[in-house]
Amino acid sequence: MKQLQGLFWGLVASQAVCIAVDANTLEYWDFDVQQNRLEIVTENGVRPQASMIPNPTRLIIDLPGVSLGQGSVHQGDITGYVTQVRVGQVTPYTTRIVVELGRQYSMRPWEVKVRSLGPNRWYVQLAEFQPHSVYSLPVEDEPVAIMVPLPSPNSNPVYSPRGGYKVVIDPGHGGRDPGAIGIGGLQEKNVVLSIAAEVTKILKQRGIQVIMTRSGDYFVSLLGRVKRAENSNANVFVSIHANAVGGNNSQVNGLETYYYSSGYRLALSIHRNILQQVQVEENRGVKQARFYVLRKTSMPAALVEVGFVTGRTDNRNLKNPSYRKKLAEAIADGITEYLR
Ligand SMILES: [Zn+2]
Fold first, then answer.
1. 74 Cα: distance to centroid of ligand 1 (angstroms)
2. Handedness of CA 184, 190, 191, 192 (dihedral sign)
3. Is 119 found in the same domain as 223?
4. Is residue 255 very low, low, confident or very high in pLDDT (cuts 50, 70, 90)?
5. The pTM is what?
């Protein structure tokens, strides 16, 4: 595979030649150092083709039918053993991502797992690396194919429940407690119930057991919510709220996700998925807070404040059923990702 060596990267600058009418583009990619994996998001569905070549070891991921989007084409000095990731357009209709390992490292094909999160979202997971172990690959300079699962719209491999996961979804407030009240009388309890119901529906479709602390417009105490979670022996607890600020300040908008102790990774996963999938007005971060439902639940717990009912932009978004649905999908993906 000599043609891989540097020949195609020069084409990046001249990508104007290759924009097809119905082009599928690479929307996002990132090598996550903590998780040791590459994430790929394309505009439409794609079936990545992964292979590996030695000396130095490079993992090649081709995205057929995909042209390069606007994102960056290089990520360098990533970890001790992945030295760089670069993206280029190898043919007018194929984008290639190359993950290059340091000289002293190599990897076996079965240590790379390509996983589908949906037709257009993929993870390329690299094995946890032992810093001093050096593996030998076949000597011939030929790519070694790596199995890529086929995404199917209804039975997504990553969502198959292995241990039978149980999730508690906790829509805030309800009944006599409307929660925050925003512009135009928009009530938090209604916004969060509709999002929570959608999250529940999606998780159930993925074979995950879901318990809602309330499934209608009625009051449930905080203690009642925690008891419900504790009695169910759930794996995670996710509370959904909407924010508010006083003083008619409609300029304050944005997403916040909270954890107290063990829920940090869960909160991060939910927050990250929302930022990736939903056009959020402002990223206000993942924060620690002493909320009752977070402190009193024994399983990993997170609380997401999906937006400000008092914020001009958030209020408009939160009234929109398709925006709420997108939020719900992202929250469900964040939970699913965490459970994996
Ligand atoms: Zn609330």
1. 41
2. positive
3. no
4. very high
5. 0.55
